[in-house]
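User: Please predict the structure of the protein below. I'd like the answer in structure-token form so I can feed it into my own downstream comparison script.

Assistant: Understood. Taking the following sequence of 241 residues as input:
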Amino acid sequence: MADNIDTRFSHLRSHTPQNTKNNFAPDQQSVDLEPLTESESAGKRGFSRRSFLSGLGAAGVLAGAAPLANAAPVLEPASQEQAETGGTGNVTLRINGKDFTLRNLDPRATLLDTLRERIHLTGTKKGCDHGQCGACTVHVNGRRVNSCLSFSVMHEGDEITTIEGVGQPGNLHAMQAAFVEHDGYQCGYCTSGQIMSAVALLKEPIGPSDEDIKHAMAGNICRCGAYTNIVAAVRQVRSRA
């Protein structure tokens, strides 16, 4: 048996004479088992196997990226912006009594995003972005609308009112003053939407009771739970209207 093993691996030993003095098995001796530490390899030859493989990997990445870079279309900045947004040209929105002309308005842009991102009227808040919390409530032609569910391009020619158009510091709307008086806000994030709904319901045919107010304000959520104070504020303004 020993003679057969020597015969089978004699060709390996003949090709790896430098490994005949270690204790590795014959099949291990047939592969390169040099140390992977850079200090050992670099000290012997000034170029390690690891550094060679790293360089090969980097070259492979560059070689693979080159065709993609060459294939990518190059667009002029203006045309690229238009291609990305699918702009519709100029759209004019009338907000709080002023006209705002928007260039290349994305037809997919919601009224909420346009108010906040293009016109920088950030009093209208983005809450759930699904029409469930009411934080984004604005008025369109006097009616309350969840601006996150409405496209801006649909409102050219409409009268849009945001919380900035209801009142200003020093000249608050009666509903804003009532919210302050009754502490109808906690974190304040829902407050602008609550006030916009409360102002709109002053002209809506709802009943006189607190239950009627709660029902009419059901689309506006306050996560802090200030509902009692909000109802008190709305009740006060309705009684004076």
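That's the full token string. Residues 11-47, 51-84 have pLDDT under 50 and may be disordered.
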